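User: Some background: our group keeps a shared notebook of sequences we're curious about, and every so often someone picks one and asks for a predicted structure to add to the entry. Today it's my turn. The entry only has the sequence so far, pasted here. Could you supply the structure so I can complete it?
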Amino acid sequence: MATPHRVIGGVADSLASGVRGVGNSLSGTVQGFGGQIMGVLDKPFGMVTQKEGPHRIIDRFLNGSVSAAKNVVDNGVMGSLQTEGQAIMHAMDQPSEVIGIPPDLGSFKLGKK
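Assistant: Of course. Here's the predicted structure to add to the notebook entry:
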């Protein structure tokens, strides 16, 4: 049913997905940059020992921290907001399904096709 509140709900879901995408992109960039730095730092140590350097302890810790922060935003904050939004949309569906207010907008599309 394409009621006005569902159209707004769809826009809000799109925004939430955009926030997740930006967060994932930023965390991937940070982790990739950290990996490059670690690779450079590994070279001198690797020439002598043929192993990764002890600085990898910090790298693993920071990678875990970035992943944990991304998970909190994705599944904690954004997930909770989307769950609450769906509950609100479901509650607002009841009047439109029962008495037809607000009206169904049919196949309303936002933006260009």
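Suggested note for the entry: The longest helix spans residues 4-49. The chain has two helices and no strands.
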